[in-house]
From TrEMBL:
InterPro entries: Flavoprotein-like_sf (IPR029039), FMN_Rdtase-like_dom (IPR005025), NAD(P)H-dep_reductase (IPR050712). It comes from Streptomyces bohaiensis. This is NAD(P)H-dependent oxidoreductase. Coiled coil: none annotated. Residues 6-149 form the NADPH-dependent FMN reductase-like domain. Residues 186-209 are annotated as: Disordered. The lineage of its organism: Bacteria, Bacillati, Actinomycetota, Actinomycetes, Kitasatosporales. SUPFAM superfamilies: Flavoproteins (SSF52218). Pfam families: FMN_red.
Length: 209
């Protein structure tokens, strides 16, 4: 029986009906179709402190810190979805990542989504890659940037079928990579046998000892 994976989405946008949030919902819906448990952590709905660099701080006055850390720790894969502001990721998402440390993130698989008001670029996604690498996470090679965000979707349905296809492919890659990297080998079935090379032929024409 295949072990159930948990995929967490972290939504950075504070705007209702945001493009990055709609893209995240699509990815998580696809992951659920593939048999995963899914959960969304919406930064706009919680109160997080500004990180002061102490990664071991308990922040007792901010219960959302423990909630965020626990959600990431329990997840096998994480999708980070952010709007791009002034050429970078949302400040809310960067602060949330700064409140995490290796025990919460190490070895987990991450996927990245960004939504832009104009033309597509990879600025915010590159920043996500840098932060995930420093947190010892595995970042998927796949990523999705959604251009012209305010006109890209209506009610969570994207007008460009290519965007929908790329988000679906991101979910597929995330689940596939998470199963490969996180689950123990026994969960993948027996490994294929490797053929051993034939014994080397006896030397020909050598002198008798």
């Amino acid at each position: 029986m295949q072990r159930e994976l948990e995929i967490l989405g972290i939504a950075a946008s504070a705007r209702k009906d945001s493009t990055s949030g709609a893209a995240l919902d699509l990815v998580l819906a696809r992951a659920a179709e593939l048999g995963c448990r899914t959960r969304v952590f919406r930064l706009a709905e919680v109160r997080l402190p500004f990180c002061d660099g102490d990664k071991a701080a308990a922040w007792p006055g901010y219960p959302a810190v423990a909630e965020l850390r626990g959600a990431v720790t329990r997840a096998h894969g994480v999708v980070l979805a952010t709007p791009e502001y002034h050429g970078g990721m949302s400040g809310a998402l960067k602060n949330a990542l700064d409140l995490l440390d290796f025990p919460h993130t190490s070895g987990r698989v991450f996927g990245g989504i960004s939504a832009l008001g104009g033309r597509s670029n990879s600025n915010a996604l590159n920043q996500l890659r840098t932060s995930v690498r420093w947190l010892h996470g595995w970042m998927l090679p796949d990523q999705v940037a959604v251009p012209q965000g305010r006109a890209a979707h209506t009610g969570g349905r994207f007008h460009d079928p290519e965007v929908t296809a790329r988000l679906t492919a991101l979910a597929d890659s995330l689940v596939r990579a998470t199963r490969a990297l996180v689950l123990p080998p026994a969960a993948h079935g027996p490994a294929p046998e490797r053929a051993l090379p034939d014994a080397a032929p006896a030397a020909q024409g050598g002198r008798d000892a």
